[in-house]
Amino acid sequence: MKVLFTFSLLMISTLIYSQYNYGLEVEQQDAKIEGRLNLGSGNNSVFVGINACINNTTGFNNSFFSRSVGSKNTTGAGNSFFGLSSGLANTSGGGNSFVGRAAGLINTIGLANSIIR
Predict the structure, then answer these.
(1) Does residue 94 form part of some domain?
(2) Model's pTM, two decimal places?
(3) In whole angstroms, what is the distance from residue 65 CA to residue 87 CA?
């Protein structure tokens, strides 16, 4: 029930406040977001974390979770980055999965890579 409530609250907040929510807190419901939460940008992507994919222009189908994840990504598509600064330098690389702190840190245009650190 907590998860459903939290997810519903996040979706409603996203609709109300567009794609940016800073400092959202839900007491006693285990939901706290500091930084960027982007669930409805029209590109089927999810960005959660301070500076997560902050430069995205046309990239789509990306899932970025943590601080500074994929922050230079502009057109890269189909990427999944999890962990502090993972995929940091990625600009147009696609189909990559980087898991762990600084995983895939220097990848810029590489395709279909998997790095677990």
Answers:
(1) yes
(2) 0.69
(3) 11
